[in-house]
Structures are given as C-alpha cells and as structure tokens.
Write a structure and sequence with these properties.
The structure is a single chain. The protein is 46% helix and 12% strand. By secondary structure, it is an alpha+beta fold. A 4-stranded mixed sheet has the order 3-1-5-4. The longest helix is centred in the C-terminal third of the chain and has 20 residues, at 358-377. The chain is elongated. Bound molecules: iron/sulfur cluster (SF4). The site of iron/sulfur cluster has 15 residues, from helix 9 and helix 12.
Length: 378
C-alpha cells in the first residue's frame, strides 16, 4: 500500500501523534502481559469507558495469573458480571490455569504457545506479545481493519477470508519493526479516537495525506456494509419467587442442570449463569411458564401457583431481540431445588453481587420496581 519514502514518513507521523496524544489508560501504565491480556479480553465487544471499572476491580481481586487460576469460577464470573460474553471470563481462567501448569505462571513468549490458550486468537496473541515482549507481530481486528480499508480505499466485506488475509499482509508491511507494541497501539488508537466507524475525523487525522479514501471522498462510506444476520424476536417468561423477606430463588447455570431440557434454549440467553426459573415462550407466556414451573417444582400444586405479571423489559443479545416477561410468585417458603440458591432480590439487582447475566438483572429490577411501588402504595 505505502512504499518507498512514504512508508517511513507514515510510520513517523503516526508514532509522533500517538506519543503526544495517546489516552492515559490503566493497562498502558505497566508493560505486564497479564494486565495487557486482561484488558484485551475485556475490550472485545466492550467500550473502553465500560471496561475500566471492571478491569480495576478484577485486578484488585486477581492481581496475577496465579490468583486468577486458583480462584473459584463463581468469583471470576461475579466480577465479570455485567460485562457480558461470559465465555471470555471462563476462557481467561482456563488459560490462567494452563499458564500456571505449563508455563510456570508466565504468559508464553512464543506465538504458537499463546495461540494454544483458550480464547486467545491471532489478534489477542499479537497484541500481548508485541506490547509486552516487543514481538514483531501486527494486530488486525475490526478497528484496525477499518483504518486499513480507508487508508487503501479497500471495498467489499472486510471479513471475507481472502480480503482479511490481504489486510493482515498490509498490517504486517506497515508494522514499525523497532517498536511493534507501540505501533500496534498507535494503529488501534487511531481507529478508536480519529478514524472512528461513523464519522472519521479526517481534518485532524495525523496520516490524512496518506489516505486514499479521503482523497477519493469516500472515507465515511468505508468499510462497506456487511450482510447482517436477520434479527430474531424471542420472548422469555421468568418466575420470580418472593417470600415475605423479599428473598428469591436463583437456579444454577443451565448447562449443569438441563435434565428438563432447560439448558438447550435458555443457556445462551442467560449466558450459562445463575438465573431465575425461565422458559422461552411463544403464544401464552403465563400458561407456558406455569407448565414449566410445575415441571421444575413438582411438589407445588399448580393451583397454588399464582403468577403476577410485572413490568416488561427488553434485552438484546447479538442478533436476538428479547422481550422479558417477569412474573412474581409470592410464597410463604421458597421451594426446594437441587443446587439452587436463595438470595435477596435487591442483591440480584446490584452489579457484581452474583454471577448473573444482564438479562437476569433486568428481570430482578422489574420485580424490585414492582415491590417498591407496592410498598409505597401500602
Ligand atoms: S484521513 Fe480520515 S479516513 Fe483516512 S485514516 Fe485518517 S481519519 Fe481515517
């Protein structure tokens, strides 16, 4: 893309800008592979501002790989709770265990070893090894791909495998070999704060004069749109049992408890975490939930289950738009269920109190809101 004299000028210009204007981010303060790794995993699909408090809380509790490897998974998921995409947290801990067992507690130095860790792909490995160890590996993710597509006026779906491979070659060719970690961060920073998805700020861009899309006047039209997966509408009805102390019942992650077929449809929707008794419904939410609850708790007579509808809520997960229908079931005593836990409803609403998904937290808030309104009007 850039050759001859242009290439060193481009590199110099971008690095100069990065050194002067980079954001002060917590994971940039120490070149520790563990911290960089943690930040890279948390930043997947999540904005920087949202990640920072999670990152700091997580590091305080698990300051190094060994602490993370030894922690109960429940604690790890609890501190991740609210960030979403929980497989990232599970993989992070599985990798930490592997690092302790096979690599003496130190993040591997070789690319192949890093790639063998659960949840570590080419991008994450390149980011950690270049930033923490100076490895000459160029990063390529959606953010960097967008910058490269604009710089080279690349059209079409960037994720198409041949195009992606060609972008990786471009990223490799542009990499500044003397400071690859800094270079990678500069490319990412450019994509995050200047060459942003919707409105690239070409007027203040440090590499504007090298950019073909800007010259052609098509910067804001690149990258071209990908074919989107059709949105699926889903409705979930959940039973929120409440006793007189406002305690409720959470069931264990569906993958460990799918004897009722609950796990298959529900597991991805509740991120394989603690959840209210719930079921995907189609035509008759209250009736279908009643059937489900009766199956889960055979000792309760159906006639004694009174479902009180609460406020509806909405939730979106990737291509699914979910309507959440919470129903309160008031009981003198919470029913027994193997492996379930009894918790205060208010606690379920607060971040990091339990390993639950945002979907479950929204259901709890719908119930708590109703409880508060009832208390106020009493
Ligand atoms: S000139 Fe505009 S489109 Fe080109 S890299 Fe800079 S911000 Fe992006």
């Amino acid at each position: 893309m850039l050759t001859g004299r242009e290439l060193p000028r481009f590199r110099k210009q971008l690095l100069k800008w990065f050194r002067e204007f980079q954001r002060d981010l917590p994971w940039r303060r120490k070149l520790d592979p563990y911290r960089i790794w943690l930040s890279e995993i948390m930043l997947q699909q999540t904005r920087v501002a949202a990640v920072i408090p999670y990152y700091e809380r997580f590091l305080e509790k698990f300051p190094d790989v060994s602490a993370l490897a030894e922690a109960p998974q429940e604690d790890v998921l609890r501190l991740w709770s609210g960030l979403g995409y929980y497989s990232r947290a599970r993989n992070l801990q599985a990798s930490a265990k592997e690092i302790v067992e096979k690599h003496d507690g130190k993040f591997p130095r070789e690319l192949q070893d890093a790639l063998a860790l659960p949840g570590v792909g080419r991008y994450t490995a390149a980011a950690i090894l270049s930033i923490a160890r100076g490895a000459k590996l160029a990063v390529l993710d959606g953010n960097v791909a967008r910058v490269l597509a604009r710089l080279g006026a690349v059209r079409g779906d960037l994720r198409e495998s041949r195009r992606w491979a060609s972008l990786q070659k471009t990223a490799d060719a542009l990499l500044e070999p003397k400071s690859p970690g800094e270079w990678n961060q500069a490319m990412m920073e450019l994509g995050a704060v200047v060459c942003t998805p919707r409105a690239p700020q070409c007027l203040i861009c440090p590499v504007a004069r090298f950019c073909r899309a800007r010259k052609l006047g098509i910067a804001d039209r690149l990258p071209e749109k990908r074919q989107k997966r059709e949105t699926q509408e889903v409705a979930i009805a959940a039973a929120i049992f409440l006793d007189s102390r406002s305690h409720t019942l959470l069931l264990p992650p569906p993958r460990t408890k799918n004897r009722l077929g609950e796990g298959t449809a529900l597991a991805p929707l509740v991120s394989n975490l603690w959840h209210f008794p719930a079921v995907q419904v189609r035509t008759d939410p209250a009736g279908e939930l009643l059937q489900h609850v009766a199956k889960l708790f055979p000792k309760i007579s159906k006639r004694n289950i009174v479902l009180k509808p609460l406020a509806k809520a909405r939730h979106a997960v990737t291509y699914r738009n979910i309507t959440l229908l919470a129903f309160r079931i008031s009981v003198a005593q919470l029913p027994d269920f193997l492996g379930a836990k009894i918790v205060s409803l208010a606690d379920v609403c607060s971040p990091t109190s339990h390993a639950i998904s945002n979907l479950t937290r929204k259901l709890a808030r719908a119930a708590l809101f109703r409880e508060d309104s009832l208390a106020a009007s009493a």
